[in-house]
Amino acid sequence: MRIFKYYGKSLILKEMKRSYDFFIKESNTRKNSKGYGLIKDKTLIANNVASIASVGYGLAALIIGVEHKWISYKKAYYRASRTLDTFINNVEEINGFYYHFVNIESGKREWNCEISIIDTAIFLCGAITVGEYFKGDIKKKAEYLYKKVNWEWYRNKDTNYFYMGYEPENGFWGHWDMYAEQLMLYVLGVSSPTFSIDKSMYYDFKRKRENYKNIKNLIYTYCGTLFTYQFSHAWINFKGLKDKDNIDWFENSIKATKANRQYCIDNKHKFKTYNENSWGLTACLSPNGYFSFGAKPCGVDLSVENDGTVTPCGAIGSIVFTPKESIKAMENYYNNFPKLWGKYGFKDGYNLEGSKPWFAKEYIGIDKGIELIMLENYLNNTIWNYFMKNEYVQKGLRLLEFSTYHQEYSFV
To answer: How many helices (H) and strands (E) does the chain have?
Structure first.
């Protein structure tokens, strides 16, 4: 039985430490393993499967751990360096891009999954960030991995969009044709010293706009899921920046987060889990498996997609956009739903529909990762500060014609 209630910063730090523990304890640290540093995708399903994106978040977690004195600089340096060695020597790849899921011991492809451009990019963001933090050999290794990536290979020359996936058996499929979580791809791709893309790729994808209630002119993502407004922002601090078309992506994510919360308020009569302190619809585990839940505006039929499941990482991963609302949601989850809390902090979702409430029993790396990084950015700007120092990140933003419009912020 829980004795103490937690609020505000004390709860933030509690959740951060437990999320950090996921990346430390669910990592392969067997020194003689070819998969050293690989991190599980999930805690309960498929113990032998690691997620490339989970490793990217795990590298950032090492920095956060040093800053909070949860791990020594020396130990974190060693783990980061050995993890990058694993990618240099053992993790299966094609043209610098990695498979979405790999065996945690060997680094070889699992589940006949795709070569994933977005998961590769999340890993690279983590690698670049530890490179800026630890410098020395780690920075050299991170740059080596970044320079290997052939961004042009992943471009559809007919549409000027990135493909979404590639399988050796079937070739490329899908397109990043609308705004989603992929902004990092253009920043990294345009500034590559080896295989760069043209800045037109960034300006060619569709920006579909719609209003939701009093939230005007929101550039929305197809599924309306919150992670699409979060993932690139975990690394790139768009605060105070606009591109040549006057788009402020940080402000757009504020709008999207507020629309997501308002959608839950507007539909609390339909789903018992939804309310002003239980919101943040995004991809997560549900009673029926892993699904991508979303809010308006979007391009899907939400009456079919949504089932009343809410995940804590939705609101928590948006704390830099809606701090007061996100903290209120955290307090609600922790103080009122004990089954939603465990050894790695908040579990992946809950659903109060039906005769018996459902609570997830496990944790997912990318969801713990977006929580940890965004909470740290909210408190200290740490991951933003180091990632934004990188010369290729700065060059990418300049080449894409982002400029500072608010004197408080700058990327140069």
So the answer is: 14, 19
Question: Is residue 313 included in any domain, yes or no?
Answer: yes
Give the count of domains, the chain.
1
pLDDT(411) > 50:
no
pLDDT value, residue 7: 77
State pLDDT tens for residues 58-76: 999 999 999 999 999 999 9
Task: Output 136-145 pairs: Cβ under 8 A, ≥24 positions apart.
Answer: 137/81, 138/77, 138/80, 138/81, 138/84, 141/81, 141/84, 141/85, 141/88, 142/84, 144/88, 145/84, 145/87, 145/88, 145/96
Tell me if residue 270 falls in helix, strand or coil.
coil
* pLDDT above 50 for 280: yes
**Res. 412 pLDDT band, cuts 50 70 90:** very low
The single-letter DSSP state of residue 34 is T
CATH code: domain of residue 25 = 1.50.10.140
Q: What is the mean pLDDT of the chain?
A: 96
CA angle centred on 142, ends 175 and 168, rounded to 5°:
35
> How many residues are there in the chain?
412
Please write the tens of the pLDDT for every residue from 304-339: 899 999 999 999 999 999 999 999 999 999 999 999
The span from the CA of 244 to the CA of 75, in Å, is 43
399: which 2 tokens? Answer: 């080449």
Task: State the number of CA atoms in the 13 A half-sphere of 192 facing the CB.
Answer: 24
Per the domain annotation, does 118 fall within a domain?
Answer: yes
Ramachandran category for residue 275: left, alpha or beta (phi over 0 → left; psi -120 to 50 → alpha): beta
Q: What's the rounded Cα separation, in Å, for the pair 253 and 40? A: 29
Report yes or no on 3 lying in a domain: no
pLDDT digits (tens, 9 = 90+) for 171-213: 999 999 999 999 999 999 999 999 999 999 999 999 999 999 9
Read out DSSP for 209-220?
Answer: EEEETTEEEEE-
Give a yes or no: residue 1 inside a domain: no
CA distance 43 to 40: 7
Full residue range of the structural domain in which residue 308 is found: 8-404
